[in-house]
């Protein structure tokens, strides 16, 4: 067996902070850089304007809707900067409070010297958005303290009704950054959110998708020291993860240097699943691969993947035999495997033999759900790759919203000391230390049969090469999505099939 590498993740991840941490980060930067808060607002607004001008030229009329907090202050500064760049800008301020924040008021003075501000004090003051301009939403940001109501809700509704691009500054007005909204809440549905410095937890929740749109992060130079010293359990995996894991192979390395993976799966009518896992496993760099499959898969696998060895089960249709695990540096089990009682016996016995982490997917997960006692015999740091339905079965319960889902996911991962990759847009990888890593790659074209089998193969292949299980899970998920993004670029999202993901794998 190869020994597992060190967990390298710690140095290559972006923190996702709570609203109160973001507020502290802001204050820490102001105190320690030091910088005046008005200048930090100026920096944030310029970052937004750079983003904006790179996408929309000055022929696009712009209307900026501002609240009276610091998000509104950003909006006023953005208006001024766009006016100075000769954009055609209208600025409307919703009077939701008797007094604006200090930096709002400073920016109001600065803007008033350049243009007239339109105040919205009643519904009658809301401008008609007939010939659609681009709307910039600076109504409410991370300081949202209650659902938007009354006049504010009316403005939000009007903006949502207009068929026009809406760009939210930092976060959509009305959307809580790190807790659930009620279904009836009034929230901007932006085409794009431009967030300052780090993503908000809401950006990763399926239930928030229409209130986030496409999103980008712009840096506003908040203190690196604060970021390093402030604990969080949420992280975002972006392209920075690639470099540390992409090393040139040593000149005198041989296939034995890259591990020997064993994949177990397939059943009559579902041999394709294990074929996809096998190809992905080889492409992920595993030196050798053996596939254990029922007899009916023998010819199929030998023909479609000549690079793999096959261990045929004595059974024609299903997997029943417990393999000798000695030769293998990592094992992945489940794709297309079926849930026959004899397969269950094999899985149970296999688990009792294991001393190092294993990758479990699909029917292996369904069998675990039906026989949860097996969860306790899984080696620590084993990797499970459920989709939300499979997670529900594993937990034996559903969730009331996506935030509760994350809590249940974390509790499960910590209770059994397992790594759980919850597949979906922004796949969430929960680690036994309680941290959750959201992925940045992937696209809806990957919601296609066999895509998950490919992921199982990738992670098993990385594990076989000696990567630490947490790295194999987080990095494997990232590379799977990256390959899917390349595939979608080539053949479009609807035409994408799982084999395309394998063909686009690069390291
Ligand atoms: N570090 C950074 O990322 C920086 C962020 N900046 C920008 O600042 C905002 C956050 O600003 P803040 O002033 O804290 O909050 P808001 O602008 O979102 O709103 C606060 C005011 O709005 C009132 N409020 C809250 N909820 C509602 C509601 N539902 N309806 C009406 N009014 C509401 C709130 O009133 P309270 O009664 O709760 O006190 C405030 O009056 C961030 O998103 C960024 O855009 C900085 O510019 C740079 C650094
Ligand atoms: K906003």
Automatic annotation (TrEMBL):
Please give the catalytic activity noted in the UniProt record.
Answer: (6S)-NADPHX + ADP = AMP + phosphate + NADPH + H(+); (6S)-NADHX + ADP = AMP + phosphate + NADH + H(+); (6R)-NADHX = (6S)-NADHX; (6R)-NADPHX = (6S)-NADPHX
What GO terms in the biological process aspect are recorded for it?
Answer: metabolite repair; nicotinamide nucleotide metabolic process
Q: Where does (6S)-NADPHX bind?
A: 70-74, 141-147, 170, 336, 387, 453
**Cofactor binding mode and count:** Binds 1 potassium ion per subunit.
YjeF N-terminal domain: which residues? 22-228
| Residue ranges the record marks as coiled coil | none
Record-linked Pfam families: Carb_kinase, YjeF_N
Sites where the protein binds K(+): 71, 137
Instruction: Tell me which EC number(s) this protein carries.
Output: 4.2.1.136, 5.1.99.6
What cofactor is needed? Mg(2+); K(+)
User: What NCBIfam families does the annotation carry?
Assistant: yjeF_cterm, yjeF_nterm
* Family membership noted in the UniProt record: Belongs to the NnrD/CARKD family. In the N-terminal section; belongs to the NnrE/AIBP family.
Provide the function of this protein: Catalyzes the dehydration of the S-form of NAD(P)HX at the expense of ADP, which is converted to AMP. Together with NAD(P)HX epimerase, which catalyzes the epimerization of the S- and R-forms, the enzyme allows the repair of both epimers of NAD(P)HX, a damaged form of NAD(P)H that is a result of enzymatic or heat-dependent hydration. Bifunctional enzyme that catalyzes the epimerization of the S- and R-forms of NAD(P)HX and the dehydration of the S-form of NAD(P)HX at the expense of ADP, which is converted to AMP. This allows the repair of both epimers of NAD(P)HX, a damaged form of NAD(P)H that is a result of enzymatic or heat-dependent hydration.
What is the protein name stated in its UniProt record? Bifunctional NAD(P)H-hydrate repair enzyme
Q: Which gene encodes it?
A: nnrE
